[in-house]
């Protein structure tokens, strides 16, 4: 029973991360129970908006202050308080091509705290006016032989996240999960096209997320909208080298 509860919380946490559950409304329903002030809740809503909607993973103090009616000093204090009480982490990453290190806000602890409260009080889900239906809830890697086989798996509704985990031979990080969600929900890429970009990255031996993202951007600039068009474009591109 306890294991089922943990699984349900993991599903709800993933729903908060990928947009199945509307985060600002969920936060408004739960922030008081988490012991947060109105200013702290508003700060978290802005961080969510930057990371989920604008793909800015580490907004500056100036960017945050331009959208809030508080001083830069108060912005810094709010961020410090939220960090200390465990509402977010600050992850460090390195660009695999340039070697440049950068930081990003990791909001998974916030999503986990919200999902725990919402599970303790299921009426919160119905109060938000929508059923909780997971679009991509599986976190277990699928078995399979290669990327080609997974084209049919995606068409049958299986988990794109698990396909990436299988190809990378490891669990995806929260940042990588958000990247895939952003490709689908914010950039509007078809799952089949994302999988084709993954296959291209595997083929070229450059298996990292920034390279997959570059492929998708290149296809978008060249009005590539189907897997067949992507194959033809890649073949022509390699033929020019």
TrEMBL record:
Q: Ranges for the DnaB/C C-terminal domain?
A: 161-234
Question: Which Gene3D superfamilies does this chain map to?
Answer: DnaD domain-like (1.10.10.630), Winged helix-like DNA-binding domain superfamily/Winged helix DNA-binding domain (1.10.10.10)
Pfam families linked: DnaB_2 (PF07261), DnaD_N (PF21984)
Highest rank taxon of the organism: Bacteria
Q: Which residues form the DnaD N-terminal domain?
A: 23-118
Cross-referenced InterPro entries: DnaB/C_C, DnaD, DnaD-like_sf, DnaD_N, WH-like_DNA-bd_sf
Q: Which family does it belong to?
A: Belongs to the DnaB/DnaD family.
Q: Which NCBIfam families match?
A: DnaD_dom
Q: In its UniProt entry, what is this protein called?
A: DnaD domain protein
**Which species?**
Paenibacillus albiflavus
